[in-house]
Structures are given as structure tokens and as C-alpha cells.
């Protein structure tokens, strides 16, 4: 497993790259840009929630995991994928629009709202590759929350590589 960590000295990750006690037990919210990081061919959508959970557990996180998938243009997501995500327990939000960047705007709004209501250490995993999230994730880090990024290797923005205490390739994450 390739685990890229930065700034382990800030107290979120210990010197071994594992989450410190406060973050290990803290809840984890996952925001997933489904159009940017689609379910790969050959990967059963019914198993995605379990794969993400196993991956996070393997990294040492023990808190409750909530996964929210967002898509602006549902026509790009096959019906069997939407059904699989829904039945696996992933909340799937269809924005009913074809506007460019609609998913990004919605996820940023959700992250800001999440930051307004959470107290204490929390973990956020963003599944995307869009550099438009860099400033939003930096805000999350400034508020002492742990940020992780899973990205699509073929469409990752250079900006996204500068945020997130831990970064992972989307396909790597799904191997669990």
C-alpha cells in the first residue's frame, strides 16, 4: 500500500503515519465525486462501501464511517452502479443538473456545512481528483481536522497533491 503522508508532526498522524488516538477514534465522513472517480470496470458497486471501510480500518481508523456520493449528471452513472451504491449503504445525491462543476460546488458546500457543525477531531476523506478542492481542504486542515484524498490517477490535478495529510490512488483504495 502506497501511503503518502505529509506533516506527521502536527498531531494528526503519529511518526509511523498512523492516526493519533484522537483521530483514530473520531468519525469519518467521506465525500465522493462519483463522476470524477467512477466505479472502475470489474468492481462490484455493492462492495464499494465495504472496500472503503476496510481500507480505512487498515490505516488504523476506528470511527463511524459515513459515505456521501454526489453526481450532477446521473446519466453518466449506470443504473446498476447507482443501485449497488444505494443498497450498500452509501448515500447517493443526484443534483438533477448538467451544469459544469455542479458536483464540486455541492461537495464544497457540504464540507463547509460539515465544518460548521462538527466539534473536536474529525476525519474527512475526499474521493476526487479535482484541484478545485484544494482551498476547501486547506480550510479543513486549518480547523485541525484530518484530511485524506483518494484520487483518480488519470485525471488528478496538480493542486490536489498539495492537500490532504494522506493521499491514495482510487484504484489502490478499492483493492481492499
Key terms:
176 residues; alpha/beta; Rossmann fold; 6 helices; 7 strands; 31% helix
In short:
This protein has helices spanning 21-25, 48-58, 79-88, 102-117, 134-142, 170-173, and strands at 4-5, 28-33, 65-71, 91-94, 123-127, 146-151, 166-169.
Structural notes for this entry:
The chain is α/β, with parallel strands linked by helices and 176 residues long. The chain has one domain (4-173): 3-Layer(aba) Sandwich (Rossmann fold). Helix content is 31%, strand content 19%. The protein contains six helices and seven strands. Strands 1-7-6-5-2-3-4 form a seven-stranded mixed β-sheet, sandwiched between helices. Strand 3 (65-71), helix 3 (79-88) and strand 4 (91-94) form a beta-alpha-beta unit. The radius of gyration is 15 Å and the shape is globular. The termini are close together. The model is unreliable at 1-10 (pLDDT under 50).
Q: Within the largest sheet, what's the order of strands? A: 1-7-6-5-2-3-4
How many DSSP-defined strands?
7
Q: How many helical stretches?
A: 6
Strand proportion, as a percent range, falls in 15-25%
Helix-strand topology string:
EHEHEHEHEHEEH
CATH second-level architecture: 3-Layer(aba) Sandwich
Mean pLDDT: 85
Largest sheet, strands/sense/barrel: 7 strands, mixed
Please write the CATH class name: Alpha Beta
**Number of structurally distinct domains:** 1
Query: What would you report as the Rg, rounded to the nearest angstrom?
Result: 15 Å
CATH superfamily annotation: 5'-nuclease
Overall form: globular
The unreliable regions are 1-10
Helix content: 25-40%
Structural class, please?
Answer: alpha/beta
Q: Separation of termini?
A: 10 Å
Q: Do you know the CATH topology?
A: Rossmann fold
